[in-house]
Amino acid sequence: MSAAPRGLARDLTLAAAVAVILAQVIGTGVFVKARVMTCNVGAPSLVLAAWAVGGLFTLAGAITFGELGAMFPRAGGEMHFLRAAYGRAVAFLYGWMQILVGKAGSQAALAVAFAIFANDLSGGALSAPGAQAIALAAIGLGTAINLASVRSNGAVATALTVVKVALIAGIALAAFRASLSGALGSAVASAGEACADVPASARLGAAGFGAAVIGALWGYSGWGNLTLLGDELRDPSRTLPRALVLGIGAIVALYLIANAAYFVVLTPAELMAVSRDSSVAREVMVRVFGGAAAAVMAAGLLASSFGSLHVSMLTGARVPYALAHEALLPRAFGAVSARGAPWVAVLVQGAWACVLALSGSFDVLTDYTIFGGLAFQALAVGAIFVLRRSQPEAPRPVRAWGYPFVPALYVLATAWLVTSTLIATPGRALAGLGLIALGLPVYALFVRHAHASARG
């Protein structure tokens, strides 16, 4: 394996690392998922159970990544796990997927969500071109912030995470206090046709609970992205595993508290009738405080979506940076500014996210990569089995608790999710694999170029 990339500063503390995880994972899912999950299972206790099971699976993955991340504390994180276990081609295809759609598509979607919340805050005053301009401005601002030092970005992530946690805690506190005082309104502010968009095959019973757990796992997605900042963590062998466990633990607790609060204010029938164009959290706040609370929620969701966008850009730029240092992308992507930022990777990523946001195709492309993304995550966690066998004497500053059962739990859960995705949307799953396979000739091109350069 080639030497680890150098040039990035190890300035991210444990607190900043935990903030990165919270900022990445807590986007809008916790505010909207409860409606569909209630349609899936029908009972508040089962919704909470689904969040708990999803959290347990996620924690199993985080514990495994603690060992792997401590072994490979490098920019690009998962890419190095995959390379060590399965070879350069698999590592490149992971990076190809992330660069082409995985990261940039997610950033485009978050920017569009930011524009939607800005429109809500303005009372619907934005025109379509105005909303597009705001989405592009959000990407531009995120890019500009990411050109600063990682220490500054850690501070931004921490500040925005405080806003997210305060928003969730505020909703829960308001709900519980209103319930105890009997100061609740009498109707849901916005209602639609209950569960009209949830297939009958995904309602009630084992199938419904499985669908609810899948929904919860989407709500926990992004937890492994801290490993992409491996070159910038202080004392990574201690910071990374601790941050993963603390961050996921905090998110599980917040999600359970928030969803319990929803059911304190709304009955399951009322919750299932919330419009798809609204959010459960908004309806709870409107029920407790009246219509004026809608603006507060829009502002909170605005901050939450930008926080996720900022951290997605922070972690995403480290993928092309790492590939460049593996001679799998042009060397320019590995350039580091005087402030310690991979500036070429940051700028190119921001430009591509803008293209996807304007094209409107990112939703379809992101759907195509869901299947591949899940498969790569299962492979990354499964790398622990390969490396324990192939590199038994390799330094392991941290060993995964509960091996082999804990990583096996995550791999089995993800395999279930991959299978469910393939059954539910076979066309998109196979298209996703095809999109990833397009990276093979690109990989061959870079390998050929690297060999030619070595001979020269």
Task: Please give a quick description of this structure.
The chain is mainly alpha-helical and 456 residues long.
Would you write up a description of this structure?
With 456 residues, the protein is an all-alpha fold. Helices cover 73% and strands 0% of the residues. It is built from 18 helices and no strands. Helix 3 (44-71) packs across helix 8 (205-219), helix 6 crosses helix 12 and helix 7 runs antiparallel to helix 12. The protein starts with 13 loop residues before the first helix and ends with a helix. The model is unreliable at 1-6 and 185-192 (pLDDT under 50).
What is the number of helical segments per DSSP (H or I, 4+ residues)? 18
Q: Work out the helicity level.
A: over 70%
Number of strands: 0
- Unreliable segments of 5+ consecutive residues: 1-6, 185-192
Structural class by secondary-structure content: mainly alpha
Gross geometry? globular
The radius of gyration is 22 Å
Gap from first CA to last CA: 21 Å
Oligomer: single chain
N to C succession of SSEs? HHHHHHHHHHHHHHHHHH
Q: Which band does the percent of strand residues land in?
A: under 5%
Fold topology:
Layout lengths: L13 H12 L3 H13 L2 H28 L6 H9 L1 H34 L6 H19 L3 H32 L23 H15 L16 H30 L2 H5 L7 H10 L3 H24 L1 H8 L17 H17 L2 H29 L14 H20 L1 H12 L1 H17 L1
Helix pairs in contact: 1-7, 1-9, 1-12, 2-3, 2-8, 3-8, 3-9, 3-15, 3-16, 4-5, 4-15, 5-6, 5-12, 5-14, 5-15, 6-12, 6-14, 7-9, 7-11, 7-12, 11-12, 15-16, 15-17, 16-17
